[in-house]
Write a structure and sequence with these properties.
The complex is a heterodimer. Chain A contains seven helices and no strands. Chain A is mainly alpha-helical. Chain A starts with a helix and ends with a helix. Classes of the chains: A mainly alpha, B alpha+beta.
């Protein structure tokens, strides 16, 4: 990929990710810790189309811009988002090597959601609430991971297969 | 749109079942294992008359409003062996060991309760 079009594509995907990130904070969850992780769609697509480096760029940009706009830059939630999203991107990149052969995007998305939630739980434990009781939330988080990972995976699958979006994003400039 | 069964690969099914199994396993482990209490209190008429460790093995006789209530502690559990009340609801309540569990004998005004803080003392976690 030529470098200009590469930057533009990363920027466009980051913008889409920021929007998803912001929209998601507007949705009032029944419990504060239940979130769909819609922004993971963007990470998945970046991994699917390009690779780990680009996905990392998209994740970092998306979390920074999204947090800045909702006014939570360097808020505890910001650190949870960025640590969770980066580890999830890393593990999903490992799983992505077996894409189409062993996993579909749905499976990779579920892996990513689980890794993200577990990372966030560990970060909460290490930095914020140093009590072992935090880990009683593991069953709840595993359950959320399956559901949200599945939904996000389906969305990513549809979007990455969509020829229109593909053409818009991957046009060489 | 193809059917979902055609999209899912063998690895997906493996991942989903693995995480589901971990979910069920951790759910039951956390429910059953760690919230055992270490102490029990016995109240008569709302006043605490005993504070006992569940780790010992002993019988306690509590004087209730109508008569004696025999309480036994063994293997970290506490239960009412016999009571002078009519309906014996307290005896049929069985053995308790987890934080917050209670046995009540209304006629005798006796209440047995496992002490301890509630299991989850996190106010909330957000991401």
């Amino acid at each position: 990929m030529k470098s200009t079009s590469r930057y533009i594509n990363i920027a466009m995907l980051s913008a889409a990710g920021s929007v998803l990130f912001i929209v998601e904070t507007l949705i009032e969850a029944p419990f504060p810790w239940i979130r769909l992780g819609l922004a993971n769609i963007v990470t998945l697509i970046a991994l699917q189309w390009w690779g780990l480096k680009e996905a990392f760029a998209v994740v970092v940009l998306r979390v920074f811009i999204g947090s800045l706009i909702i006014g939570r830059l360097f808020h505890p939630v910001f650190f949870l988002s960025i640590s969770g999203s980066l580890t999830a991107a890393f593990v999903m990149a490992l799983a992505m090597q077996y894409n189409e052969k062993l996993f579909s995007l749905i499976g990779i998305s579920i892996i990513g959601a689980t890794v993200k939630n577990m990372t966030q739980l560990s970060v909460v434990y290490l930095i914020y609430i140093r009590q072992i009781t935090v880990f009683y939330l593991i069953p709840l988080f595993l359950f959320i991971s399956i559901v949200s990972g599945f939904l996000v995976g389906i969305a990513a699958l549809l979007i990455s297969k969509s020829s229109v979006i593909s053409t818009i994003y991957r046009t060489q400039i | 749109m193809k059917r979902i069964g055609q999209i899912l690969k063998i690895g997906d099914i493996f991942v989903i079942s693995f995480i589901s199994i971990s979910f069920v396993a951790t759910f039951f482990i956390f429910r059953l294992l760690p919230n055992k209490g270490w102490f029990a209190s016995i109240y008569v008429n709302g006043r605490q008359v005993y504070h006992l460790s569940l780790m010992e093995k002993k019988d306690v006789i509590v004087m209730g409003a109508q008569g004696r209530v025999r309480v036994r502690i063994e293997d970290g559990r506490i239960w009412v062996v016999e009571s002078t009340c009519k309906q014996k609801i307290c005896v049929r309540s069985g053995k308790i060991s987890r934080i917050g569990e209670v046995i009540v004998c209304i006629p005798n005004r006796v209440m047995i309760r496992i002490d301890g803080k509630a299991r989850l003392d996190v106010d909330g976690v957000t991401m």
